[in-house]
Amino acid sequence: MSDAQRMKRNQPVHPQVRVGHIHLKVADLDRAVAFYRDLLGFQLTQRIGTSAAFLSAGGYHHHIGLNTWESLGGPEPGAGMTGLYHVAFLYPTRRSLATALQRLLEAGIQLEGAADHGVSEALYLRDPDGNGIELYRDRPETEWPHESDGSLAMYTRPLNLAALLAVLEDDQHSTS
Predict the structure, then answer these.
(1) C-alpha to C-alpha distance for 59 and 72, rounded to whole angstroms
(2) For the residues 67-80, what does the mean pLDDT come to?
């Protein structure tokens, strides 16, 4: 391999590349659609019979694909197996994340964790097929923690859920 080829291969990906969508194998399509549509609030954009469905936020063709092509009635992946650790959904504001938390609590969904990472606030849970889900919001970059040398200093601390939910109470008091 030439030096030019090596340099080209080592170039970073374009900075505007984003994760476009996820596609998950599920055991029960109706159950999965109900979770992502009815609980998390994604919109169903298309359904292909009883084998696949596509959901989105904001009218995009799909952010989430669900299918039973290889997994109809299948078991959850076991602990210690390789595969998806979690998929993360970025919420635009702290209020929208608080609304998501309130929906989860009202539905009796158990959180696996809630963390303040300095750069973000995150909620962790599982979907009905055992897939890890992270719901999070980024803090403005001006608030991100840094080391004395300027490098990023992310951390994991408990997220104050009461303070997060208080955002919704503050909104109610300001409109009454």
Answers:
(1) 28
(2) 92
